[in-house]
Amino acid sequence: MSWLSNLRALAGALGGGATPPAPEVVTGERLMRQIERHAKATLNSYEERRRREAQAFAEDLEAVRRFGGGPLVDRFLASIQSCNDALTKRDQAMIDAIRPALRKFSASERSDLFDYLGLLQQRIGWVVEMNNYGVFVHLPGSELASNFGRACNFLWRDLLQVGFEVDAARAAPVLALLGQEIPGLRLKGSISYPKGMPKLGIVREIERAARNGLALTGKDRENAARIIALICDVPEHRRPTGPEKTDLPLIVSLKAIAGLDQQDGFFARMRDCKAPRVPDLGYTEPSPERIAFWDAVLVEVAALLDHAARFRAENGALKSWLADPAQFTELFGGGEDPLFTFGWWNRNTKGEKGFSEYADNALRTILHGDIADDSFLKLPPLTPEVTKELRERAKTIDSDWPFDFSSFGIPGIEMFALEGKDPSGSLLNHLVDPGDSAPGKTWLKECTRLIEAFGADTVLDCFNRWMALGIGQRISGIDMRAKNNIAVYAAAFNKYHVSLYPETMPEAGTAGYARDVRRSALKVIVRAPGITRWRRSVSAEVSRYDIPKLTASYSENNQIVGRGIALGLACLPAEQAVPMLEKFAAGLLVTHYDRRICRSPKAMAGIVWSLGQIGAREAAFALGRIRRQTADKKMLKTIDRALAEAGKQLGLAPDDMQEIAMADHGIGAGGVRAIELGGMTVELVVSSSTKAGLFTIEPNGKRKRGIAKAFLALEGGKEIAEELQEAAADIEIILPEARRRIEGAWRDGRSWNLAGWQDRLVDNGLLRTLTERLIWRFSGDGPDMVAMIRNGVFIGPDGSELPSPGEASRVHLWHPQESPAETVAAWRNFLTENRIRQPFIQAWRPIYLLTDAERVTNTYSNRFAGHILEQAPAMGILKKRGWQAYNRTMDGNSAEHERVRLTLPHFGVAAEYWIAGIGSRIQQGVAAEHGGRLFAFISCDRVSFFALDKNGKPGGEPIPLESVPARAFCEAMYDIDQIVGRTSIGADRNWQDRGAGAAHPLSEVPEFVDYHRRYSSGQASELARSRHDFLAKLLPGLAIASQCSLSSDFLMVDGKLATYRINLGSGNILIAPNDRYLCIVPAGRSEAESYVPYEGDEILSLILSKAMMLADDEHIEDKSILRQIEAGR
Question: Across the chain, how many H-helices and E-strands are there?
Answer without folding.
Answer: 43, 23
